[in-house]
Every structure is written in C-alpha cells, then in structure tokens.
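User: Structure with S-adenosyl-L-homocysteine, tokens only please.
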Amino acid sequence: MTNLPLAENPVSFARQHLLDWTDLQFADWLRQQGERPFRGKQIWRWIYQRRESNFANMSDLPAKLRAALADHFVVFQDTVVHAEQSPDGTEKLLIRLASGGEVECVLLRDGDRRSICVSSQVGCAMGCVFCASGLDGVDRNLTRGEILEQMLRLQTRLPGNERLSHIVMMGMGEPLANLTNVLAALEMARTPEGLGISPRRITISTVGLPAAIDRLGNHGVAYNLAVSLHAPNDELRNQLVPVNQKIGLTAVLEAADRYFQSSGRRLTFEYVLLGGINDSRHCAAQLTKLLRQRSALLNVIPYNAVAGLPYRTPSPQRIAEFRQTLLQAGINVMFRQRKGSEINAACGQLRRNRQAIAK
Ligand code: SAH
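Assistant:
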C-alpha cells in the first residue's frame, strides 16, 4: 500500500451522496459503524417518507450514528437554481448537479394525482429533431442518486399531507440508454421504505431501443412502458427520430409487443403532433393500422414550441380531424392537455432558455 498524505479531515470534503448508495452498501457501512442493519430502513424512512435531509434531526437514531452519518454523507448534493410554478399548479425545477450539468424535473397536479416527470441524462443522444433536450447531444448519464434527488426535491414542494402518486421517466434524456441507474432509482422509488409508489404508477418513456426494451422486460418488475412513436411509417420517423434509421418501426413495435407479453401492462404510444408534418388524415389512417391489433393507448401530445425550431402545434381544426380519424377506427386515444406550457414544461426547454439568456 502506498502512503498517501493524510488530509486533515478526509471525510469532510469527500462526503458521499447517500441517495447513491444501495441497501447492501449502506448495510455494510452501518455494520462497520457497529450498527444493526435495520437502521438502514429506518434512515431511508426518515429521508423518503419523513422528508428529513438533516441527520441531526433524525431523533430516534443514536447521537453517535447521527454524527457519523453527517461526517460521511449528504442527502442532497445538487442545487435547485430555478423554480417556476404555473397557474395550473405545475412546478418545474432546474437543478444544477454537483458533478456537472443541469437537468429539469416537473411536478404535475391533476385532481388527486401528484405526478413527477424526471430526467435520466444530462442532454440526450437520440436527436429527435423537435426536442430541446437533445439539441446539443448528451453529456452523461445521471447516477441513481441524481435521479432520486430530483424525486425528493419535487416531493418537498408538496404539503406534508400530500404524497407523490405517479412517476414518469419523461424528462431529459433517454431512460433506456441509462437503464441500470434508472432501474436502481426506481427500485428505491417503489420500495415501502422509499417513496412506496407501485410500479403500476411508474412509466418509463423511450424513443424505442429494442434490446433495452427486452432487458427491461426480463428485469421482472412490470413498469408501464411508453414508446415515443411520432410517425406511422419509417420514412417520416427516420426524419423526426433519427435513431429510427438504424432500428426501424417494425423492430420497435415488435419489442413493445414482447414487453406487453412479458409484463401484461398495456402499452402507451406517444405521438407529438407537429403541424403540417405528421398531422395529416393519411398519417392518422396509417397510425390506425399500426395500433388496431395492439392493446395500447395512444397519447397525442400537442407540440410545445421550442425557440429556434421551426415546428408548430397544428390548428385546433386539424387536431380535431386527426382525432376523428382515430376515434372512428376505435383506437384508444387520449389527447393530452397541455400542462405547464407557460413555464416551458416540455423537457429541455427551461435549461435551454436559461442557457440562451446566459449567453
Ligand atoms: N427519451 C424518451 C423520454 C424523454 S422525452 C422518449 O423519447 O420518450 C418525453 C416525451 O416528450 C417524448 O415523447 C418526446 O418526444 C416528447 N417531447 C419532446 N419535446 C417535446 C416538445 N417540445 N413538445 C411536446 N413533446 C415533446
């Protein structure tokens, strides 16, 4: 072993992000401290359910343990640099990550629902032409702890008697390109000592990466899968969703079908309506053919305009026509309301606008 110079107080500048630690790692650490493993769950409950991020306040822990925790760990390591609330109650946070980069996450209030939309990467490599998140490519994957910190930060926006009810992995990034960390974070989100949210209320949204969809299917926990389709044929999808050039619609749909078979969860397909591009009756008719045989919900999302990009939401009449074609064919379709559009709630927009202001 080499002799490293000893820092005066080595733990003080190397405190670990506790949200990054798995149950097993934490149990090991607790054992080293001479503590019993049940303390792990007790501490998770303080953090995730009682929303306590200051170890000193965890009143049923021995004082020595509280001090050791404060020496070794932080619960929150990132900084909320901007928070916005729209009149419909939607809140959006811009978070500056201690390890570099900024991501966005959103809290949506809808009746009893308290849904959060969480990011999985800094930027995105998929290159969908209409999306603000991927305009500068991807910087890196988020860690488990960085994903969980977004959830906890959003939870702190709720009054004490309200709980988070749904999670959608639909923020910045491609969750299936960071599946290991996304699954590790969701494990904590669904565990009873964590956020205790059932996988039935958790949705992973993907551009459609077949191998990763299969991996998710084999993982064994039946999360909801949403596939961002955006076009009913390869010619158009290759333009809007460039990764499609290497994959193709058929492979995406087949992987989605396998996921439906293994998970039993009804699929969701997402379709961002772009005026004059994918909103024709012809597109709607083609879409009908793709979806008729499938147990799926089609989620049509009006486009949230991104500054500098040439895409627009179609006119209400055009949207109504598109909708009519699908409804007549018996497709299970939902036209999503725009929530939080006043605060740039489409992924990547807030970060982008602020970067533009900073330039
Ligand atoms: N990469 C994943 C998840 C993040 S994007 C995916 O592609 O599904 C979440 C959804 O928001 C996707 O369907 C995406 O196409 C859509 N989206 C991106 N930019 C948008 C915008 N400006 N307006 C409306 N929806 C948008």
